[in-house]
Amino acid sequence: MKRVVIYPKDIMIITGKSERYSRYLIQRIKKHLNKEDHQMVSITDFCTYMGLERDEVEASIIH
């Protein structure tokens, strides 16, 4: 089963950045997409915002 939501730890793996940056990036994506605080950021949202291919992202975060 594929995951839908992306978490800071996933972003850390993909970008090589810190957890703090990853949390900040999620907040920027939420603001850009006009999401509320309780709403989650999907892998698709992240890929679209960052200009990355979903297949590549999924391959890097699946253990």
Structural account:
This protein has about 60 residues and is an all-alpha fold. The protein has one domain (about 10-60). Helices cover about 60% and strands about 0% of the residues. It has helices at about 10-15, 20-30, 45-50, 55-60. Helix 1 packs across helix 2 (about 20-30). It is globular, with a radius of gyration of 11 Å. The two termini are about 15 Å apart. The model has no long low-confidence stretch (mean pLDDT about 95).
How would you briefly describe this protein structure?
The protein is mainly alpha-helical and 63 residues long. Helices cover 60% and strands 0% of the residues.
Low-pLDDT sequence parts: none
Structural class: mainly alpha
Number of helices: 4
Shape: globular
Number of domains: 1
Tags for this model:
single chain; 63 residues; mainly alpha; 4 helices; 0% strand
Spell out the blueprint of helices and strands.
Blueprint (H helix, E strand, L loop, with lengths): L7 H8 L3 H14 L10 H8 L3 H8 L2
Helix pairs in contact: 1-2
